[in-house]
Amino acid sequence: MSSPFPSLPVSQITIPSNPLINAAYAYVKENCSECTLNHCLRSVAFGLILQKKFPPLANAPDRDTEAVVLSTLLHDMGWATTKALLSKDKRFEVDGANIAREFVTREDGKWDKHRIQLMWDAVALHTTPSIAQHKEPEVFATQLGIMTDFLGPNLPLPGSPITIDEYKEIVRAFPRLGFKEELRGIMCGLCRDKPETTFDNFVGDFGKIYGLDGKGGGKEEFTKMCEEKNLVRMLEASLTALEQYEN
């Protein structure tokens, strides 16, 4: 079976190739932008380097590398350009987790409930490091590989496991193609199209900084909406309302 992935001799890793991984690669390629696809591939590569060099992952027993690769490859299906795949009321991470679960269930009926749940958690929690790092190694590896695409050699881990040469090799293999600008557009689009999914997480910060079009349009209105939906204010108002029943 020929692999769709290039060799990475500097990093000394090989992105695994099998029918399910290759099908997942083709699925992301078909339904996401090339920029998003390359982000997912870079994240896979960084995750594999970290699995080899970062002790908490390297020393994890019975690591499920296939689950890590598939979770990372499919993690941003919530950004799909095929809008029919997406919900109108769920966070993009949940959309991605649901799509990944449906894909693997459809393509490979041999995955048991535990592996499927592991992948769902890895995708759903990939933007929540304060939770992901305390779950299974596969969930942590997925989250850390994705974070590395944003921090590269500046990843704040002991021993600086991602070298500059490794970083350069991965980015040459899977170019960024304007990723920073596309990311801003996607996040602002979520604030515009699914605002209720953005108030309690970092996505809303994009809307408050860049507006709903990435250029400042709708910024004030969205910021006001976020303030009205502020979780602390809502919790305290709810507790105050309950005081009438406690006297």
UniProtKB/TrEMBL annotation:
A Pfam family per the record: HD
Record PANTHER family: CYANAMIDE HYDRATASE DDI2-RELATED
InterPro entries in the cross-refs: HD/PDEase_dom (IPR003607), HD_domain (IPR006674)
Domain HD per the UniProt entry, residue ranges: 37-133
Name of the protein described by the UniProt record: HD domain-containing protein
